[in-house]
Amino acid sequence: MKKLSLFALSAVLTLAACKESKTDTATTSGEQTVAASVGDTFTVNTTASTVKWTAYHKGGLNPRFGTTQAAGTFTVENGTLTAGSLTSDINTLTTDPKAVDSAMSDGKTSADLDAHLKNEDFFDVAKYPSVKFDITKVEDLAAGTESKVVGANKTVSGNLTIKDKTVNVSFPAKVEVTESGLTMVSNFTINRQDWGLTYGTEGDAKDWMISQEVDLELNIVAAK
Known about the structure:
224 residues; mainly beta; Lipocalin; 11 strands
């Protein structure tokens, strides 16, 4: 049994090492001062915007993926994004049915996963109904910085609040501003445990089987 366990652990670690990254890795720090809203206001088009999430089991196995809705505003001065805020209502979180094979999940469906993510096991939406991102800084992407986002031109930093924990995250993004509109595209990975998103108590075997990595893909559209 011990040999089998060691073999299984070795296989998981090998798979994890081989998992091809298709996202940028967000850097994190403590909570920062929110940027002042300076310039013209652009309102996020909730219908046209998408926030996609992907979570995994260890080694990138059995990915689960879906969407949530986002609302908010940005401010722009002299053609440059200066500040902004996004709020995602976790009650709108939906798992794509293609992400859950009921034949391999003891009959569980994507709707069951939705309920699991929204209850006290993870987000506890009855107590914490939303996730919020407040921009703290927007800078030109440093020369030579590689990004998985084609055309990335900015580094966006902001306070990401999940449940009762706020962590500052920074990630590359492609930000385009016109006279009447703004778009922001990014694709980055965070560590869910930075926000205390765990399944069960610390060290619980159920939580161990879930990867700490969560991918977030933002395609945000805003207009005056």
